[in-house]
Design a protein that fits this description.
This protein has about 450 residues and is an alpha+beta fold. Helix content is about 40%, strand content about 10%. The protein has 2 domains: about 220 residues, Periplasmic binding protein-like II (D-Maltodextrin-Binding Protein, domain 2); about 220 residues, Periplasmic binding protein-like II (D-Maltodextrin-Binding Protein, domain 2). The chain is built from 16 helices and 16 strands. Helix 1 packs antiparallel against helix 12 and helix 14 packs antiparallel against helix 15. The relative contact order is 0.18.
Length: about 450
């Protein structure tokens, strides 16, 4: 009830300050004080199912008397579905990959410039609850504006069964390949099912790349067919030969490891069932470690490869397109209530149960929203490891320009062709680069280059 009153207080304080509660971008004349709770339901469109929508309703009801109407659009709504929903809702919850297209279509509105200052001033917690650096630095801003708040940042981890030996502080991809070779065939895995193989490649390439990522120059030239990506794909091809013949998703791998059916794997909890406490007692003991790093690192064509020198503190954080975001929708009619909702759902007090009910929702802040904070087990270990990973300041620009899913689908098809023995890694990466060029031309090279700069926080 204390939190319920504090959420209402957000709207009350802003109203008493004479600020409007509409969604217009221009400053308006001071308005009369507003009611602490609007009788008009807050309308939320969710990229998710009805079960997930109900989890949000229950969580919000515990902290606020504000009526809430959550519309479930399904797990993978199209860009057009989200654009249409934006006209009829106050808040959108969507995959990060759709950010650029939603901005291009005018489907989401930036947060007020005063929003972050207001939220900090009104907090009642004794400790700060800032967004974890990797999330705050890479997802909040698009160009010069704050376009929303991150609701999660799933990261893959290395899972292995305890073998009685000491756990290495940091594993390289070379170490991992040796471990796979020493593991019985079919007892190691990473996500390579349709739609996941491109991500597996990019997580590996992330460890080998210097500061340049995916594209080079203002002309948005893809750099997939270069040394670090080629090395990553060759090694993936080699390791995959010892994986189960049936390609698996992250959720399937996570479950298989904890049921004792895999000894070594790369995955992350990608479904609520992965973190259900009721199952933990019957599952095998599992050790969680950070994802392997690349050593050496490819700096650029002139300087080539360079040894990492045993350092792992300069490892780049890579956030993928499925990371969920919350933004003000084009049809927003209650700015302050909507922003208060976003502050809550992005890790505010009372939202701790959401990561166990909604795929992709994770720890997002420096305190208060641990996964499984009330008990031990893999969910607690993952939350702690995730917080450490997302505290890094070296963050790759996420692929969230218009057509982001098309770029990933094109790359995934080429990686799958390599795994099936239909193409060599060299040919596949050249073909992926050609496909990316065609997508860029289709959307407009100048527009796509502008969006790529904006996703890195540049104004235009």
């Amino acid at each position: 009830m204390l939190r319920r009153r504090s959420v209402c207080l957000v709207v009350t304080v802003l109203s008493l300050l004479g600020l409007s509660v509409g969604c217009g971008g221009d400053r308006q004349e001071p308005a009369a004080p507003q009611a602490t709770v609007s009788e008009v339901p807050l309308r939320v469109a969710l990229a998710g199912d009805e079960q997930q929508a109900e989890a949000i309703r229950r969580g919000w009801l515990a902290v606020s008397d504000q009526p809430l109407d959550v519309t479930a659009l399904g797990a993978q709504p199209s860009d057009q579905q989200m654009v249409t929903a934006a006209q009829q809702h106050d808040v959108l919850i969507y995959p990060t990959a759709q950010t650029g297209q939603l901005i291009q279509e005018g489907a989401i509105r930036p947060l007020r410039k005063q929003f972050h200052a207001d939220a900090e001033r009104q907090t009642t917690e004794a400790e700060p609850t800032e967004l974890l650096p990797a999330l705050g630095d890479s997802l909040v801003r698009y160009g010069s504006e704050s376009v929303g708040l991150p609701l999660g940042g799933p990261q893959p981890v290395l899972l292995r069964r305890p073998d009685g030996g000491p756990s290495p502080r940091q594993t390289t991809w070379t170490d991992y390949a040796q471990q796979v070779a020493q593991t019985d065939k079919g007892r190691a895995a990473e996500p390579l099912a349709d739609g996941w193989a491109a991500q597996a490649l990019l997580y590996r390439a992330n460890g080998y790349c210097g500061s340049t990522w995916l594209f080079r120059g203002d002309e948005l030239q893809p750099i997939l067919a270069t040394a670090p990506y080629l090395r990553a794909l060759r090694e993936l091809q080699q390791d995959a030969a010892r994986y189960p013949s049936q390609r698996m998703t992250p959720a399937e791998i996570w479950q298989a490891v904890h049921e004792g059916n895999l000894d070594l794997a790369i995955a992350w909890p990608a479904s609520p069932e992965n973190l259900m406490e009721s199952d933990l007692a019957t599952r095998a003991d599992v050790m969680l470690q950070p994802l392997p790093v690349g050593d050496p690192v490819y700096l650029d064509p002139e300087r080539g490869w360079q040894d990492r020198g045993g350092r792992s503190d300069d490892h780049w954080v890579l956030l993928m397109g499925q990371a969920p975001m919350g933004s003000l929708a084009a049809g927003c009619r209650q700015t302050f209530v909507s922003e208060s909702f976003l502050q809550w759902i992005s890790g505010g007090e009372g939202s701790t149960g959401l990561p166990e009910a909604i795929a992709g929702f994770t720890v997002t802040r420096t305190t208060n929203n641990d996964l499984g904070a009330d008990g031990g087990g893999p969910q607690t270990d993952y939350s702690q490891l995730l917080r450490t990973q997302l505290s890094g300041r070296f963050v790759r620009p996420p692929l969230r320009i218009p057509g982001a899913d098309q770029y990933m689908q094109a790359l995934d098809a080429e990686v799958q062709a390599v795994l099936a023995g239909e193409k060599t890694p060299e040919t596949a990466l050249i073909d992926a680069s050609v496909a990316w060029e065609e997508i860029t031309e289709r959307y407009g090279r100048r527009q796509q280059a502008k969006h790529w700069r904006m996703t890195q926080g540049m104004s235009r």
